[in-house]
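step: validate -> pass
step: tokenize input -> pass
step: predict -> running
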Amino acid sequence: MTELSAPFAPDWVSPPGDTILDLIEEHGWTQAELASRLGYTEKHISQLINGKVPLTDEAALRLERVLGSNAGFWLAREAKYREHSARLEATKTQADWIDWLDELPLKELMDSEAITKCRIDAKHKSAIVNECLRFFGVASPTEWQAHYGGMEASFRRSRIEQSNVGAISTWLRLGERKAELLNLPKYDKQRFEKTLKIIRDLTIEKPEVFQPRMRELLRDAGVAFVLVPAIPRAHVSGVARWLSPTKPLIQMSLYGKT
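step: predict -> pass
step: emit ->
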């Protein structure tokens, strides 16, 4: 079973102040002398060293003149510190979102390679939450529920009472991602209406004949057409919706083979 890979991320974080302390020690300065040279109060220097206040562009330029290294070094050091701090906080928050995974078809997500295949245990769940959020393109389960739970779409669906929001949203998102890869011309309403008449005549043909032809006709009309295998508990045959004001999508699952 694959282990979720991630860059080394210790559960501690070093602020730029650690580097500042090292340098003033080399110079044999006190924090008071550094404050005097930088033109800051001793309180501000203390807060800067402890990461309590951000290291601004102006502060980076002052440090460049007083301690050496260029301003870009100090700003990069600050950005890395803030990013790592935010990730540590996010990891703690994601631990509170683990129950959300119970709403999602994780096996199907892994089988489709939408997220990394791994054991669904306590060790991996926080990382799985992060991967699922990235897959859906949302910041938290709250945004996921708001976007997909209340999505208005024209469904062909059976067993409505048994349909599951997690399964349906996963199927919809898999279709969105496929459609994002398509390079389509601008939607042409008149051409699409003519295309529908041709497609109706094609339905008497075998799938291997009408499917590629239908895909070609829809593409030329600026309509994204994707096939995404059915997901258990979704019970969705197809959906037609707008991905943007100029990009319509027709998505089918071939659920029920009809």
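step: describe -> The beta strands are 154-157, 224-227, 236-244, 247-252.
step: cleanup -> pass
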